[in-house]
UniProtKB/TrEMBL annotation:
Location, primary (coarse class): membrane
Protein name: Magnesium transporter NIPA2
GO MF terms, alphabetically ordered: magnesium ion transmembrane transporter activity
Top-level taxon of origin: Eukaryota
Places the protein is found: Membrane
InterPro entries tied to this protein: EmrE-like (IPR037185), Mg_trans_NIPA (IPR008521)
Similarity field: Belongs to the NIPA family.
Keyword Transcription regulation: no
Membrane topology (UniProt): Multi-pass membrane protein
Keywords: Membrane, Transmembrane, Transmembrane helix
PANTHER family for this protein: MAGNESIUM TRANSPORTER NIPA2, PTHR12570
Amino acid sequence: MSQSRGKYDFYIGLVLAMSSSIFIGGSFILKKKGLLRLAKKGSMRAGQGGHAYLKEWLWWAGLLSMGAGEVANFAAYAFAPATLVTPLGALSVLVSAILSSYFLNEKLNLHGKIGCLLSILGSTVMVIHAPQEEEVETLQEMSQKLGDPGFVVFATLVVIVSLILIFVVGPRHGQTNILVYITICSVIGALSVSCVKGLGIAIKELFAGKPVLKHPLSWILLLGLIVCVSTQINYLNRALDIFNTSIVTPIYYVFFTTSVLTCSAILFKEWQHMAADDIIGTFSGFLTIIVGIFLLHAFKDVSFTLANLPVSLRKDERAVNGTLPNTYERFNHDEESSTCVSEIQSSENVSSRRNGNLSAF
């Protein structure tokens, strides 16, 4: 009976995780559409510190969609293991990229598509090789985890780095460097996930009839979640307003996933029980993510698609052999047509000269 129940919970968590990715991926598009409408009206843009988006219904629809996705994601953790739920967050990247090409006319070149794929694969490999987190059943146990010196140092560093990015780096480089605002969202997001896990435990205890509301940690976690989520929303809006959605979404996913895995490892001491193959898999996944980010960021302005690939091969073949392979003739129909027309005109001119016909001149 317990195995059957566990399998039932697994599929519930799977459906919730997939639904979460769809809602979150769509929320990026709705928010971006709302911000673009405000830009056309001449309102002060979110990237410049404006908050006119609060009056735009499309932005609110995106916020509600993201809220629904986060709720589904929160519920998924209660039914399925984190090693399943976290990688499925990559689906939001694919949903956002597909929808942005239809509704925002944003295109990803071949490098971007490969980079997006590598980022997803790398994050998935990291999660697969990450060890299972230690079980925490009560708020008292969670309180002990949060009070651990290692996590206190980590949380302090996150707050310090976030404040430096917000007040020093952001005003100078936030408009030109895509990583500034996304890094703020990601590192703060690591703390928000910790708050969500703690609140999940509190809700379970509340349904079990325990006096959770009298425990100060419950209110501290709730306040921390509100502050973290508000900060994430603000700076994610700025990133979406300034940069291409197809670039923001995968980079945010990669940074956020890495931050959450790091926070979870420190909070639950997972690294102490890692095997050698898990360590190698984690580093391999991380390096794959770095390569994916490089392809996404370094070549985002290069216009290169699969349609250009046969042309490039044809040019290389011509340079070597001096001839055009028949396989690639159809990819250069226009070029060959113009060449044929020029040859025909030249032939007609020569023929006209030989026959003494001056009309050709």
